[in-house]
Amino acid sequence: GIPLSVGDRIMLSTRSIHRSKNIWRHPAGPDAFVPERFLEHDKNYPPQALMTFGGGLRRCYGSNLAQFHVKLFIVRTMQTL
């Protein structure tokens, strides 16, 4: 391991986590478009493995707005059906 001192800052590489073959064990690989991997019955990955908007102090400021717009889009689409 790497020795750390009090006050040291640690930054994770979300790109490395999102493309880790150890976490995303699908035959097609972590970069393949396989939306089924996120279904409830197929959640065999740790919750920290998908950090869409980052985390901590560097979390995306627009995450709440983006999630709101996705929900609004779904509601509006369902209303027109």
UniProtKB/TrEMBL annotation:
Record's protein name: Cytochrome P450
Entry binding sites for heme: 60
Alphabetic keyword roster: Heme, Iron, Metal-binding
Cofactor: heme
Taxonomic lineage from the root: Eukaryota, Metazoa, Spiralia, Gnathifera, Rotifera
Similarity comment: Belongs to the cytochrome P450 family.
Organism (species): Rotaria socialis
Gene3D superfamilies: Cytochrome P450
GO molecular function: heme binding; iron ion binding; monooxygenase activity; oxidoreductase activity, acting on paired donors, with incorporation or reduction of molecular oxygen
